[in-house]
Amino acid sequence: MPIDADFANTLVALRIARSRIDGYGVFAAEAVSADRKLGELTGEAITVAEARRRAQGRQRIMMVELSASRAVDATRSADPLRFTNHSCQPNARIGVEAGAIEFFALRDIEAGEELTVDYGQTHHEGRLACRCGQPGCIGWL
């Protein structure tokens, strides 16, 4: 069942619902203009070594490495942005500024559109099939 809410760390209205890409996704509940900040992701501050240990054998996680030694585990976070799926042609990006994990629209996003980012390098190391379905999909994460 879709969840519409005013989440504390988001700047736009978001909705969590089933995704055609994988599991649940986060969807814009309003139109969003390009370059607009969508919100911030929070979670447990951990070491990169601990993040990689936690990621072993798991397919659904949300870890962001902030530096060579620091990471954030948002797997149990209440933030809706943790449901952001990967796409080879994303409509949003993740930026890290002063330790804050921020999401920004890369282009105009329509209400009802799923928010996606390019995960870049992942713990899957090319072993997990990409399900984005976009033209030019690289096929693996």
From TrEMBL:
Keywords: Chromosome, Methyltransferase, S-adenosyl-L-methionine, Transferase
Pfam families associated with the record: SET (PF00856)
Residue stretches spanning the membrane: none
SMART domains recorded: SET
Protein name: SET domain-containing protein
Species, as recorded: Roseateles agri
Group of enzyme by EC: transferase
EC number: 2.1.1.-
Location(s), subcellular: Chromosome
Cited InterPro entries: SET2_Histone-Lys_MeTrsfase, SET_dom, SET_dom_sf
GO biological process terms on file: methylation
Alphabetical list of PROSITE patterns matching this protein: SET (PS50280)
SET domain location: 12-120
Presence of keyword Mitochondrion: no
Record carries keyword S-adenosyl-L-methionine: yes
GO terms for MF: methyltransferase activity
Highest taxon of source: Bacteria
